[in-house]
Amino acid sequence: MKNILLVFILFATLSFQAQHTISGTFSPAEDYTWLIAYHLRPGTQVYVADTAIKDGRFELKIPENSPSGTYRLVYAVPQEEYNFDVVYTGKEDIILDFKISEGPIFTTSKENILLSTYIKEIQMGERSLISYYTNESKDEDEFKKITQNYMAIQHSFMKRSDGLIVQEFIKANRPYIPGKYESIDEYVKNRKTYYFDSLNVTNPILQASGFLTDKLSNYIFTALPLEQMTSEEIEKVMQENLKTVVEKLEGTSNSYEFSTLYTIWTQATASNLNDLADTVYSDYLKIKAATPEHQNIVSKIELQTRLRLGAVAPEIEWKDGTDIQRLSKLDGNENYVLVFWSSTCGHCLRELPALHKRLADNINVKVVAIGLEDDETNWKLESAKLNSFEHAIALGKWESEYADLYGIDATPTYFILDKDKRIIAKPDNDKSVIEYLEKK
To answer: Where are the alpha helices (DSSP H) in 194-291?
Structure first.
């Protein structure tokens, strides 16, 4: 049975306040050097401040008249992965201790401490109910006691958060709690049916946070039936859930809708849910891209999609005497290696001869070397030394067709293909190419 865990993050609102600070510690101290704060807004974020982390300690001075709301603290790259959110009201200082295994633990901040405590306790209430079902209990008195306690947690925090910003999130996060005994199948079904009852997707406070995006993506990826399903069947259910989320997003701004769907695409891609990711892209993101920034994201998605593991490598053509050769027409080898290089690249002139030497007698591997060049003169001299490779040239170097098609921004860059020309690996260097091929 799937244990569906809710994800909670934080938010933004609009009043203006005096200057306060966000301070605390990061440990282990040697792992952290710098901290950047962004104010979240619907579909975007705005830089606010930054500071060094010295010996594990930091203090961010938030500028006067900064709006209250969710502030995202970024402590490493990529920013999308290494961050956490805090509620900043402009009425209190915030002190916290951060450990990667635990996240932020707030020691000063009424708003953040209350929200953190709510998260822990409401999850405990959920786990009690899940445990009841997992143990296949039929005791209805026990069921009533568990659900009443679960409901009491929600009501208690609604009262305790009266007048606070975080009440918006506690209210919006109200879980489905059965009013009377029901089977696990009924519970899972009803939980999905009533998932959006307390969630106002058009609420700008919720939009200016990670909370709402997490709730929407959580529905797509976890609102699933209990019965055993194939991976293809699971992905079909997720695609139906996606349709529901898109319907809920109607009435929100294009910026927020696009940002939310891009987050969902990113999560689907990271989970290798390629059909779902392709649906998010082709049916929604590609159509809804309304700004140059959106178009840049679409271009990045197209690049990542055509170069992802399992994709057929884009076509490459080159001259062999008077004949035109094509990557797609090569045959008879178990693997193919594409290497994008340049005859003026020092790393290339070290790595390619070494690769050539190691693979010269390997009849199962064919190497296609694509030279990114400004002209043919030096390329002809250097490529002639690698006579067991197939050689293509892309004039225009970084601006060439193949540099764009394969997203090349450094040389050498390697791709390993299977016999059907599907991308199966992207090694970092010539040694990694050999290691991969020898393990097969």
So the answer is: 204-207, 210-222, 231-249, 254-270, 274-280, 286-288
Report the distance separating Cα 212 and Cα 222, nearest Å.
Answer: 15
Residue 160 token pair? 């305790």
pLDDT at 156: 98
Q: What is the DSSP letter of 56?
A: T
Rounded to 10 degrees, the C-alpha dihedral 322/326/327/330 comes to -80
Q: Give CA–CA dist 212/195, Å, rounded.
A: 13
- CA-CA distance, 86 to 62, in Å (whole number)? 13
Residue 10 has a pLDDT of 32
Per-residue confidence band for 220, with pLDDT thresholds at 50, 70 and 90: very high
User: What is the Cα–Cα distance from 64 to 324, expressed in whole angstroms?
Assistant: 66
Instruction: Tell me which DSSP letter residue 281 carries.
Output: I
The confidence score (pLDDT) of residue 322 equals 85
Q: How many CB atoms lie within 10 A of CB 22?
A: 24
Confidence of residue 18 (pLDDT cuts 50, 70, 90): low
The two tokens of residue 199 are 């969630």
Distance separating alpha carbons of residues 397 and 372, to the nearest angstrom: 4
- Mean pLDDT taken over the chain: 94
Residue that the structure tokens 């306790």 belong to: 121
Long-range contacts of 115-121 (CB under 8 A, 24+ apart): 115/8, 115/10, 115/87, 115/166, 115/169, 115/170, 117/157, 118/153, 118/157, 118/161, 118/166, 118/170, 119/8, 121/153, 121/157
- Residue in the structure block whose two tokens are 């975080």: 166
CA 233 → CA 131, 208, 237, 276, 334, distances in Å? 27, 34, 6, 11, 32
Two tokens, residue 7: 């994800």
d(C-alpha 250, C-alpha 179), whole Å: 31
Look at the chain and count its residues. 440
Q: Give the strands of the sheet with 390-395, arranged side by side.
A: 390-395, 365-373, 335-341, 413-417, 423-425
Q: Which class for 69: exposed (0-12), middle (13-18), buried (19 or more C-beta within 10 A)? A: buried
Show Cβ contacts of residue 64 under 8 Å, excluding neighbours closer than 6 positions: 18, 19
CA 76 remoteness from chain centre: 15
In whole angstroms, how large is the CA radius of gyration of the chain? 27
pLDDT of residue 3: 36
Q: Strand 335-341 to strand 413-417: parallel, antiparallel, or no bridges (unpaired)?
A: antiparallel
